[in-house]
Each structure stands twice: as C-alpha cells, then as structure tokens.
Amino acid sequence: MSDAPIVDFKAVSKTFVLPGAWPWSPKREVHAVRDVSFQVAPGEVLALVGQSGSGKTTVSRCVLGLESITSGEIVLEGQRWDTLSERERRTKRVKYQYVPQDALSALDPQQTSLEHVVESLTVLGGVSREEAHKRGAEMLESLGLGHRLNALPREMSGGEQRRVTLARVFVLQPSLVVADEPTSGLDPDRQESVLEDLIQNLPKGAGCILVTHDMAQARAWCHRALVMLEGRVVEELRFPDGQPTHPYSRMLFDPWGEHDLAQSTAI
Amino acid sequence: MSVVLVVNDLTIRTPERRLVEGVSFEVHQGRVTAIVGHSGSGKSLSARASMGVLDVDPGLERGSLLYPALSGEKDWFEGVRGQGMGAQRRLARDTARYRGSYVTYSPQSASSALNPGRSIGQQLAIAIGRRETPPADLGGAIRDVLKEVGLPPRAAYAVPSELSGGMAQRAAVAIAIAPQPKVLIADEPETGLDPVLRRVVTELMLEVAANHGVALMLITHNMDTVRRIADDVVRIGPHASGTEDV
User: Fold this and answer.
1) Secondary structure, 3-state, chain B
2) Cβ A157–B39 below 8 Å, yes or no?
C-alpha cells in the first residue's frame, strides 16, 4: 500500500459571495475557509471540530469537490483534484464518498434499504443488477439490517436509516469517507453504535474525515482532530494523549468549565 | 411553585401501534422539567400533545391535559379521546390562541423558528402582540426583549440571514419568551450547536425563564445538560413515565 496521503489539502481558502438581504443591498463576502492545510493518511480517521459556522462542513465539501475553492490545492491519492472538470471527477467520485448529516432526507422515501444499496452499486459501481443484489444484501446483513432489506426509510428508526446510508457508501469500497455529523439527533446509545459501524467498516487503508460537535466522540474514535475557528485551523490534537492549549479549544473540550465565554466570537 | 401544565396517562396510537403510552408529568412554574428518552420514544409527540396538537390518526386513545394557571381543572382532551382526527382538529383550533401565549415552542434549529422574510423586529412585534396585556410602547418592548437576550437594538432591523448562528439562536429565544408565556417548550435546543454555543444557549434560556418565572420544558438527549440544569426529569420510553426529582 502506498504511504501517499489520501487527502492533501494545501493552503485552501474558500470565499462565498452572497446576495444582500434585499435586491438593492450590496453583495457580501463570507470567508468560510482561510488558508487551511492538512493531510489524511491511509487508515487514518481525522476529526474536524469547532465552532458552529467555523467552516468544517465547507472544508469537507471542498475535499469531495462539492464546492469549488477560491485558492489553494487539493490532491487526492496523489492526483490533483480541484482542477479536474466535473466530467473527469464523476468517474473517480465513486472512491470518495459522503455520509450526510440527515439520513432521512438523503434517502428516497419510495426505495427500500436494499434498493438504495443496489442503486449505488449499479449506477456508481458499474455492477450488474444480480451481483448488486447479492452484494447489497450481504452489506446490509453485516450492518445488522438483514431483517430490514425491504423496509422503506419511514419504517426504520433513525439508527437504521443511518446504517443504510453507511451501507450505500461501504459497498463501493471507497478510499475516502467524509461523514458530516453522522450521529446528529440520535440518542447517545445509538450515536455510539452508528460510529462503531462507521469506523469499523471502513475499508482497509481508507481515510476518513469525521465532522463532529462531540469532543468525546472525536477523542474515542479519531487519530487526530483539527480545531476550527472562523474558517482557520487554530490547533491540531493527536489522540489519545493530546490536550487542548488554545483558549477556544479548551472551551470546546470542557464547555462547562471556568471560561471567558466572550472569547467565542460567534456568541 | 404552582403547577402550570399537567399531562396524565397520555396514550397516542396509529392503527398499528401505540406511539406513546401512559405518559404522565407535571410542569411547575419556575422549574426546569427535562423530557428524556430514546430517539422515536415519543418526546416531541408528547410535547406537541401538551400544546393541544395531535396530528396522528386515530391519535389520542387515553389521557388528560390541564392548564391549571389558565383554565383550572378543565380537561382539554375531554371529548377528544378516541374520537379521531375531527375532534383533534377541533382541539387544535380551540387551543390555537394559547399556543404562542400560554405555551410557546422553540424548535430544534433557530433557522426553523425564524421567518426568513421578516425582520427580527417584525417577528418580535407579532410575539409581543400575543401577551395577555400588550404593551403601549411596542418599540420599547422590542428593545427590552432584545436587551434581555444580549442582542443590540439594531438587530430588530435585521432579517435572519444577516445574523450569525449565535445571534439567530438568541433571536429565537427572544421570540419564544416575548409573549411572556407560562411554559416554554424547548425541543432539543442543542442539536447541531457546538459545545460552547450549547452552553451559552442553555444558560440564556435558564436565565430568561428564571427572570420571568416561566416553566422551562426541555426535550433533550443530552444527559450532561439534564444533570446540570433540570429540576425534574420525565423519562419517556416503552413503559409508563412519571416525574422524578433530580
């Protein structure tokens, strides 16, 4: 296996130009990501943590090419990614997969769990329907959904819906999985089991970027965390031993401690 | 502290199964009541039922709902139990004027609490207009509410898209508290917020609820928050619930 990073994010910035509140208002620039650099090694799970609105989701979308970047460079598995056309990316995208925050809105209300996975395999993976049915059922069974192959999203619990989104991703054997708050809105027990399914089913050598607000999750499941504040990375922590030193990181990891909350500028 | 909301033996069902069974709790003025339970256990359904909103068919099978500080011993579910959607729609109409005045509801995300097309001041004016005794100086009342939640007076002229995430959360709290309700239901106010903002929003809700003697009914998954701020805990699950002191 190559030791080249799965993701090499080099000095990336992203600025959104938004319309004003009214048609006659001036346009506004929002600097969502400012000069962010990091790498994800094969087999590594990297957490992106930080303030709401600090640019975590924008970074994760830029990695996958779902947002263009304003400056910088993105290299995935040794190949420049940000300069590829959408047509060129489409054929490679199967290796770089996304687990959304809201599973229910990501699933087709008219498709069963098996149909979701089969569609992934046939449309993105180029697998025959028969083979896709076999592999899809195996994948769902391995995630404990063997008895829910024909269930529609609304007939499943929140945890089961998340597992279908995971099955749809893992069946493609991706080399990078970006999960944007995949446990948001679940109760603590289910959060734990969904994360366990996510991390333990990662294909061998695949990298993972986990966007989360839960510092205990980051510490328990990730090798490293980047702490983001106002579009910048203010600190990198290596787990299990790394301790936050930046004032905002300390607040984030111990929110109920004695802090000067005025330092968190979004408040 | 006086009781402002009583739910007794609440049981709601679809044709196939019971979604909520035997849920009972009381909400007291000036106290924080946490409603906890697994995803899908019926927390939000119970909260909506306690506002007189039942949108499940056939819906209410058993239970009673009292607003003691408003209507004494009147059971709002009288004539609704087992009567299906028609009776439930009537209940929703009868209780409509008390939603947003006696009971206010703050949904999971500020973005769904705020009207994107209206300024914060316009939205506050509507909320303040629901008070039992609307103030003579509406502008002054808007400024007072904004000040209470830590927003500057100019926030009244902003539409939600012009506010930061933290400011939008504060505006949502302002709108929930502006009608001077007896009960404020906060439905997982921490969802999607970072830990620091979570603390700030929680402390803000506690502070404004304490200042106005409002009963705060907090629906949450976060047991750390429950341990820190709840006076009473109601566990909703497969078995009947009851109120526990913390």
Assistant:
1) CCEEEEEEEEEEECCCCEEEEEEEEEEECCCEEEEECCCCCCHHHHHHHCCCCCCCCCEEEEEEEECHHHHCCCCCCCCCCCCHHHHHHHHHHHHHHHECCCEEEECCCHHHHCCCCCCHHHHHHHHHCCCCCCCCCHHHHHHHHHHHCCCCHHHHHCCHHHCCHHHHHHHHHHHHHCCCCCEEEEECCCCCCCHHHHHHHHHHHHHHHHHHCCEEEEECCCHHHHHHHCCEEEECCCCCCCEEEC
2) yes
